[in-house]
């Protein structure tokens, strides 16, 4: 598996395709919510297996978001690899902690990676979320 920062048109298309399939099609999140206009201010991460795009996520300042793995590649370490790459990148640029808003059903995934829940459950795109934080 290879995790890389999107730098060219193909990698940007790959990134948005994964998010579109996972969030807009799979979870029926409105595309205007998913594609919120912040991507040009983010570092976009892609996961590839045998040169095929399988996962994506973004880093906006110190906030991780839009972590997505294509359905047929889940439970194969894609999300963990993406998160570790994001954390390493954040450390390299001097970010001391990462925050994220985890969908409640993946809270355990982030707990396993060392993220700590903070605050109450809230709704984002009509889905239950919990804010989580990790010191790097």
Counting H and I runs of at least 4 residues, what is the number of helices?
A: 4
Q: What is the approximate shape?
A: globular
What is the residue-averaged pLDDT? 97
Radius of gyration: 14 Å
- The CATH homologous superfamily: Gcn5-related N-acetyltransferase (GNAT)
Top-tier CATH class: Alpha Beta
CATH architecture: 3-Layer(aba) Sandwich
Distance between the termini: 23 Å
Strands of the widest sheet, in order across it, are 1-2-3-4-5-7-6
> What is the helix/strand order?
EHHEEEHEHEE
What report would you give on this structure?
By secondary structure, the protein is of the alpha+beta class. The protein has a single domain, classed as Gcn5-related N-acetyltransferase (GNAT) (Aminopeptidase), CATH 3.40.630.30. The chain is 32% helix and 38% strand. It has four helices and seven strands, in the order βααβββαβαββ. It has helices at 9-26, 31-34, 78-92, 107-112, and strands spanning 2-5, 43-49, 52-60, 63-69, 97-103, 116-124, 127-135. A seven-stranded mixed sheet has the order 1-2-3-4-5-7-6, with helices on both faces. The model has no long low-confidence stretch (mean pLDDT 97).
């Amino acid at each position: 598996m290879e995790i890389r920062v999107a730098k060219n048109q193909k990698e940007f298309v790959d990134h948005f395709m994964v998010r579109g399939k996972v969030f807009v099609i799979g979870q029926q999140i409105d595309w205007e919510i998913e594609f919120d206009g912040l991507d040009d201010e983010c570092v976009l991460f892609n996961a590839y297996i045998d040169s095929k795009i399988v996962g994506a996520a973004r880093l906006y300042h110190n906030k991780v978001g839009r972590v997505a793995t294509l359905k047929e590649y889940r439970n194969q370490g894609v999300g963990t690899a993406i998160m570790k790459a994001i954390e390493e990148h954040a450390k390299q640029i001097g970010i001391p902690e990462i925050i994220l808003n985890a969908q409640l059903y993946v809270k355990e995934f982030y707990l396993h990676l060392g993220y700590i829940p903070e605050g109450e459950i809230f709704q984002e795109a009509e889905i239950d979320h919990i804010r989580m934080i990790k010191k790097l």
